[in-house]
Write a structure and sequence with these properties.
Layout (H helix, E strand, L loop, with lengths): L10 E2 L2 H10 L7 E5 L5 H9 L2 E6 L2 H10 L1 H5 L3 E5 L13 E5 L5 H9 L7 E7 H8 L7 H9 L1 E8 L4 E2 L6 E7 L11 H11 L7 H4 L6 H10 L13 H14 L5
Parallel strand pairs: 2-3, 2-5, 3-4, 5-6
Antiparallel strand pairs: 1-8, 6-9, 7-9
Helix pairs in contact: 1-2, 5-7
């Protein structure tokens, strides 16, 4: 069965990488695992060995038929549930689950947004993503982004190592990385709304080369912003990429809770 370029398919072939993924996800006997893009089932088999139940979702009808035959016994025993569906249209389980995925690069951001902002968040996410995306999330260059701040607001990302392109068939043009997002919750957003926080974040990053205080001119006066920056111990010439998630939270609360400025 050939991979479909239109679906961004690159099938994982390395059993060593499979072992690294399940160890990173700390998969246990009582776990329900949601697997996105099971491919030919190399990771699925290991998940079934360790977890209580696996729900595997794939957009490719041919792969679903293939997996139905491969895991006929596990499906009959109800330890595996196969779903033919676009993951972006899937409603997450309302009971605790762990998410495991080798996801197509082109929908990485959408998957993060869908599951982290959901009312039914996973307990953890263990993902194979493009290496440079993982590095950007971790801000290895010391520079944050909308993506990195968004993920760190919901959980704790951990970069767990590179997975070379040779471990997939067909080989992608770039290497991947194992990324764990643990301790997922919405505690960060106490006293502030998620949507409003992200709208301010986008305004702050609107012009990356400009100073943050200039970008935030739509929200409050220059004088008010200078007072708030001083209160938050932020230099007036700081840029959006230099703020940590906690810096952003402090800034937000000072603008809208205490400053009572209007958007």
């Amino acid at each position: 069965m050939k991979a479909k370029k239109s679906l961004g398919q690159h099938f994982l072939t390395s059993l060593k990488v499979v072992g690294d993924i399940v160890r990173a996800g700390n998969i246990k006997k009582g776990d329900l695992v949601l697997e996105i893009g099971p491919g030919k089932g190399v990771l699925t088999r290991k998940l079934l060995f360790l977890a209580k139940k696996v729900i595997a979702i794939d957009k490719d009808r041919e792969l679903v038929f293939f997996l139905q035959e491969k895991f006929k016994g596990e499906i009959e025993s109800k330890r595996l549930k196969l779903i033919h569906q676009d993951i972006l249209n899937y409603s997450p389980p309302s009971y605790p689950y762990k998410l495991v995925a080798n996801i197509p690069y082109y929908i990485t951001g959408e998957i993060f947004r869908k599951f982290l902002s959901s009312n039914h968040q996973p307990k953890s996410m263990i993902l194979l993503v493009q290496k440079e995306v993982a590095r950007r999330i971790m801000a290895h260059d010391g520079k944050e982004s909308i993506l990195s701040i968004s993920i760190k607001a919901y959980g704790q990302p951990k970069y767990l190592g590179v997975v070379k392109a040779k471990n997939f068939k067909p080989e992608p043009k770039v290497d991947s990385a194992i990324l764990l997002i643990d301790k997922i919750s919405k505690d960060f957003f106490q006293k502030m709304g998620e949507q409003k926080f992200f709208s301010i974040l986008k305004i702050g990053f609107a012009h990356k080369r400009k100073m943050l205080i200039g970008n935030l001119g739509k929200i409050a006066s220059r004088k008010k912003l200078e007072e708030i920056f001083e209160k938050c111990n932020l230099p007036k010439k700081i840029r959006a990429e230099d703020l940590s998630p906690e810096n952003w939270k402090s800034l937000f609360l000072n603008i809208f809770t205490r400053g009572k400025s209007q958007t």
